[in-house]
């Protein structure tokens, strides 16, 4: 019975988490959340690059990659429930940090919020990228993207960059790609949370952003933690983090901060 239970747990884990390099001896884990419409591969390969003391778990959402046949999630709560149900035992056993870009920054925040309020555990660091805080005026007043016609949606997509032009020019590929993107934007546009009355976290929070992206209200993220708060701008627009030089800067920063947080944790 026990072995069947373990098998079920491990298959659920593999369904939801992409981990290129299992590392049982790692001192900390980095849980990465995809951008809207995104998959897990970009982050999973960080596991091959990051310092060996960190194990990287990249979250896979329904409707893409190996989960292509599953219906998209309709709400942030579904993402929170699934991620926490799969990861909770692992998050209790060793220090972990969260990383999310754009839509992934919202899911990182939502998962951290639920972990703290429901289970009283928190990450040793949260790295947020390319997004205003979910309760900020900047974000609340942003025009809804998921309601745009396909033509207008494509124009917007081209304007933010990050999507290979050959993909945008291929109708068959677009048919596969657009539904996931729109589904994630639907989740984020319907996600509501109030500004915290007081910080609910005590861990450091770092915000990264592209200098040429549309302005985000990064300072509003300060309200989530009583810990250290840092903002770092890197060259580039919305998908600045895909640039190899920027990626190197981000990974070095994460490594440095996880190594110091491990010392604090011990």
UniProtKB/TrEMBL annotation:
The Thioesterase domain covers 29-255
**Pfam families membership:** Thioesterase
Look up the EC number in the record and give it. 3.1.2.14
Q: What class of enzyme is it?
A: hydrolase
Q: Which GO terms describe its molecular function?
A: fatty acyl-[ACP] hydrolase activity
Which keywords has UniProt assigned to this entry? Answer: Fatty acid biosynthesis, Fatty acid metabolism, Hydrolase, Lipid biosynthesis, Lipid metabolism
The Gene Ontology biological process annotation of the record reads: medium-chain fatty acid biosynthetic process
Q: Signal peptide location in the record? A: none
Name the SUPFAM superfamilies for this protein.
alpha/beta-Hydrolases (SSF53474)
Q: Which domain of life is it from?
A: Eukaryota
Could you tell me what reaction this enzyme catalyses? (9Z)-octadecenoyl-[ACP] + H2O = (9Z)-octadecenoate + holo-[ACP] + H(+)
Q: Does the record's keyword annotation contain Lipid metabolism? A: yes
Name the InterPro entries for this protein: AB_hydrolase_fold, TEII, Thioesterase
**Entry-linked Gene3D superfamilies:** alpha/beta hydrolase (3.40.50.1820)
The family this protein is said to belong to:
Belongs to the thioesterase family.
Q: Which PANTHER family match?
A: S-ACYL FATTY ACID SYNTHASE THIOESTERASE, MEDIUM CHAIN, THIOESTERASE
Report the protein name in the record.
S-acyl fatty acid synthase thioesterase, medium chain
* Organism per entry: Betta splendens
């Amino acid at each position: 019975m026990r072995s069947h239970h373990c098998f079920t747990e491990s298959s659920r884990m593999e369904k939801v988490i992409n981990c290129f390099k299992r590392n049982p001896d790692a001192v900390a884990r980095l849980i990465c959340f995809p951008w809207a419409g995104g998959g897990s591969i970009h982050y999973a390969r960080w596991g091959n690059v990051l310092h060996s003391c960190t194990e990287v778990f990249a979250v896979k959402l329904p409707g893409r990659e190996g989960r292509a046949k599953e219906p998209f999630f309709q709400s942030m709560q579904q993402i929170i429930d699934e991620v926490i149900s799969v990861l909770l035992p692992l998050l209790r056993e060793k220090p972990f940090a969260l990383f999310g870009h754009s839509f992934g920054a919202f899911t990182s925040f939502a998962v951290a919020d639920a972990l703290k309020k429901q289970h009283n555990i928190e990450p040793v660091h949260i790295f947020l990228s390319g997004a205003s805080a979910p309760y900020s005026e900047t974000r609340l007043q942003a025009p809804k993207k998921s309601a745009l016609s396909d033509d207008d949606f494509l124009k917007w997509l081209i304007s933010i960059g990050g999507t290979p032009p050959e993909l945008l020019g291929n109708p068959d590929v677009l048919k596969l790609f657009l539904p996931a993107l729109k589904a994630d934007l639907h989740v984020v546009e319907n996600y509501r949370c109030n500004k915290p009355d007081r910080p609910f976290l005590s861990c450091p929070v770092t915000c990264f952003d592209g200098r040429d992206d549309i302005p985000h209200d990064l300072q509003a993220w300060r309200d989530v933690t009583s810990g250290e708060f840092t903002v770092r701008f890197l060259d580039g627009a919305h998908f600045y983090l895909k640039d190899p030089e920027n990626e190197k800067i981000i990974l070095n920063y994460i490594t440095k901060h996880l190594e110091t947080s491990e010392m604090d944790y011990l």
